[in-house]
Specification:
It is built from 3 helices and 17 strands. A hairpin with a 4-residue loop joins strand 15 and strand 16.
């Protein structure tokens, strides 16, 4: 009788251990390389998915540096892509931000949160050069600049441009265009001469400048 009770107890304990083990969710590896990629104040959080995993869903949260509360990002809850646009919630140039993301595999497996480096839209965004449109006339070269729409929307009154005029010998002359003026007439040029032009966006208040765009070349009349 005593042996029977011992065997029954062993079976019950064994079943209990099996049940407890079955209820423990499998911990997924977290996403890696979580960071902001920001161009012209369009702030995209990107990450690399865990290795050897498929069909995962991702959940993104953000907060202002120094604030305790994490907030969900609309449109980035239970997504399958590996990026999330946080431009609307990280638009204040005076603030610093954090974001985090975790992976989930239904029904119950999920990873730890993976944290981004601290991000500043003012200091961390890269700005793009404007698009150049050139029109050759008898008076010279009419230059029009068209900056990216997102940059105009955010920093319209702070945008300046540098125009580089390069002759066939490689000599450069630099012209400046103030904000709100998007065109420049280049005259007193040699006739039947080839000139190349490049442009650069400058935001003096933030000491930021873009790279130059690709050269565009024309020949004067």
């Amino acid at each position: 009788m005593a042996i029977t009770r011992l065997l029954l107890r062993a079976v019950l304990l064994g079943n209990l251990r099996v049940c407890v083990t079955a209820q423990v969710p499998v911990r997924l590896a977290p996403p890696t390389q979580v960071k902001f990629h920001s161009v012209d104040y369009k702030n995209i959080l990107q990450w690399t998915p865990p290795t050897n995993t498929t069909s995962l869903q991702y959940y993104v949260q953000w907060k202002i540096y120094g604030e305790p509360q994490w907030l969900d990002v609309d449109g980035c809850t239970g997504i399958q892509k590996h990026q999330c646009d946080l431009s609307s919630v990280t638009s204040d140039l005076r603030e610093w931000y954090y974001a985090r993301v975790h992976a989930s595999s239904l029904p119950s497996s999920k990873s730890a949160w993976a944290l981004s480096p601290r991000f500043s839209p003012r200091w961390d965004t890269q700005i793009s050069p404007p698009v150049l449109k050139l029109n050759v006339t008898e008076k010279g070269i009419m230059v029009r600049v068209k900056p990216p729409r997102m940059l105009v929307k955010k920093m319209h009154n702070s945008l300046h441009y540098k125009i580089y005029l390069i002759d066939s010998s490689g000599e450069e002359v630099v012209f400046n265009i103030d904000c709100c003026l998007n065109k420049l007439m280049l005259n007193n040029l040699n006739h039947k001469a080839k000139y190349c032009l490049q442009a650069q966006t400058v935001i003096p208040l933030q000491a930021k400048s873009s790279t130059r765009n690709s050269k565009k070349c024309v020949t004067t009349l």
